[in-house]
Amino acid sequence: MRIDLHVHTQESDGSQTVEEVLNLAHSNDVKILAITDHESTEGITRAEELAKYLNIEIIPGVELLTNFQGEEVHLLGYFKDIHNSVLQTRLSEIRKQRTSLAYDMVKCLQKGGLSIEWKDVEREVGSIGAVSKGHIMRAIHHRYSSLNPKSWQDIATYFRPGGIAYLPYLKHRFEDAVDLIFNSGGFPVVAHPGLLSEPDMVFDLLAYRPIGLEVYYGYWEQQQSLISYYAEVAAQFALLATGGSDYHGPFGRIQMGQLDVPLEGVYKLRNLLT
C-alpha cells in the first residue's frame, strides 16, 4: 500500500484532471491520497466521489504560498471538511492575486527576450484556479519545443532568485496562513523544507505554533540524507511528519506514490482532524 500526501491536478498547476490523477493513483497502488492544489479545493469533491469506487482514502488538502520574513514558504493544509466560508473566501482572494502576479512574470519574460504571450499561458490553465509559474513554464516549454528546445531546468532558472521572472508571492503571511488553516478546522504542515532559501528557517517556522513537517520528499539534492535529517527535525520540533511526490504530471522526476511515506503520520493526522 502506498501513501501520497502531496498531489496536484489541473485545478491548480497540475497537467492532469482529477479523474486522471485518481486512476493513476489506483494503478500505482496508492491507497491514501491527498489532493493539495495551490489555493484551490475545487477538485476535492470529484476526487472523493471517484475514490469510493477505487478503494482510495482521500485526505482533503491545499497548498498555500506564504511570506515569512520576506521569503516565499509553501504551506500544506489538511482538512476533514473544506467547506468553510472563511477558507474559501480567502482562497478566492489569493487566486486573483497570484494570477495578477503571473501576468507580471510574463511581462518580465517578454522584456528578457522570450517569445511568450499571455494567451500561451492561458491555454495551459485547465480550471478556475490561480495562474502560476507552473503554467508559464509549460507554456515556454511548448512554445520552444520544436524550434529552440529549452530544458525544464533552464526554464526553472527564470523563476528562481536572480532570474528574470523571479517575483515571489508575498501577500500572505506565513503566520496568517497557519492561523487560517487552524481556524478552518485543518492542520498545517510546512512543505518541502529542503527547498527553503535558508535551511535553518525551518526552526522558526515550526516555533510559531505546533504544526507538521513534510519530510518524505524527492525534489531536492541528497534526497536520502535530507529525509533522514528532516525526520530528526520533525521528531523534535513538529507534531508529525508527512510526505508526498509533489506530483504535477508524468513529466516530473518523482512519480505518484514513489516515496515511502510511513503510515504513522497518517494516523496522527487523522487524530488531529477529528
UniProtKB/TrEMBL annotation:
Domain Polymerase/histidinol phosphatase N-terminal: 3-68
A UniProt-annotated Pfam family: PHP
Coiled coil: none
MF GO annotations: 5'-3' DNA exonuclease activity; 5'-3' RNA exonuclease activity
InterPro entries: PHP_dom (IPR004013), PHP_domain (IPR052018), Pol/His_phosphatase_N (IPR003141), Pol/histidinol_Pase-like (IPR016195)
Organism annotation: Desulfosporosinus acididurans
Protein name: Polymerase/histidinol phosphatase N-terminal domain-containing protein
Classification via SUPFAM superfamilies: PHP domain-like (SSF89550)
Top-level taxonomic group: Bacteria
